[in-house]
Write a structure and sequence with these properties.
single chain, 302 residues, mainly alpha, 0% strand
Length: 302
């Protein structure tokens, strides 16, 4: 293990690992796409702009796979091996949790979905002052591009498409992002602190900011903070990993069952439309009650 003192130097090294390995793996994904799909590198950029082409989506998914591994999973593992004494203990991945806790987390994730839909709708309605109209137009353009790519990824015709998306969109991000943000960033900030809130909210803010989607910033930050409290109270990183997976996997499965358009018109509107606001309120009450049960159970009995 290499000794590295101080919160800022440790986080700076972690960022360096993410940038370097992320860049290397992004280039590796691009380089591998050519021979795998029989595409000349000079034609690859133009091909990946065509989101209506199944071949383009396959290439983009391969690149996304490399990006996720290089940007999150490998940096977390390498940093832990080099700079953390007893990394399994530090990351809390050698500590499982009870079936009751996982069941509570599952219920918590489903009960908060209507309220999260409402929060997404509210966040998308935010308008910046006129002085920032250029910035707002840029952010909306980036958001629209990200949304179109997400829709393209979520269009699935076979069960193989479903399993690929569950791995690519749900499992790998849940593992990699939770290792980075809750396992390393949150616990590095909170090291030596009695109060865990600073690390929870700073890591949640960074978690949301990294996605570069302003019109989903606040719901993603709230989710990140919730994942952070699951780690602190549940004392196992597998709980936020599970919650993160359920959040992403739910969207994938709903898109598979209803189609992307059906998901937007039906599922995403639960709690977000005026006729379903009551569902959001009931969901929040259920979520709050379950969260209190989770806190009390882990605070006083484990």
């Amino acid at each position: 293990m290499i000794t590295l003192h101080g919160t800022f130097p440790r986080l700076l090294v972690l960022v360096g690992f993410c940038l370097v390995l992320g860049g290397i793996f992004a280039l590796g994904g691009l380089a591998l796409s050519g021979p795998l799909f029989g595409v000349e590198l000079e034609n690859l950029s133009a091909l990946t702009q065509d989101l209506s082409s199944p071949e383009s989506i396959q290439i983009l998914k391969l690149i996304q796979l490399f990006n996720t591994v290089g940007l999150f999973v490998l940096p977390a593992l390498l940093f832990s091996l080099l700079f953390i004494q007893k990394p399994l203990n530090w990351l809390k991945v050698n500590q499982s949790s009870s079936a009751m806790n996982f069941g509570l987390v599952l219920l918590l994730m489903f009960s908060i979905l209507p309220a999260m839909n409402w929060l997404v709708e509210w966040n998308q309605g935010i308008q910046l002052p006129e002085a920032f109209s250029g910035l707002e137009a840029w952010m909306k353009g980036k958001e629209a591009g990200a949304m179109e790519l997400t829709k393209a990824f979520l269009r699935m015709e076979t069960t193989n498409d479903l399993w690929i998306n569950l791995i690519l969109i749900a499992l790998l991000p849940a593992l990699g992002e939770e290792l980075i943000f809750r396992g390393i960033v949150q616990q590095t900030i909170n090291k030596g602190r009695q109060n865990p809130h600073l690390g929870i909210w700073v890591s949640a803010l960074l978690f949301s900011a990294l996605h570069m989607q302003f019109y989903g910033f606040f719901p993603r930050m709230i989710l990140g903070a919730f994942f952070g409290y699951l780690l602190v109270w549940g004392k196992s990183l597998w709980l936020p990993i599970f919650a993160h997976f359920i959040n992403n996997a739910t969207a994938v499965i709903i898109a598979y069952k209803l189609g992307v358009e059906g998901m937007e018109k039906e599922f995403d509107q639960i709690g977000a439309s005026e006729s379903t606001y009551l569902i959001s309120l009931v969901g929040i009450l259920i979520f709050s009650s379950l969260l209190w049960v989770f806190y009390r159970r882990n605070r006083f009995t484990e």
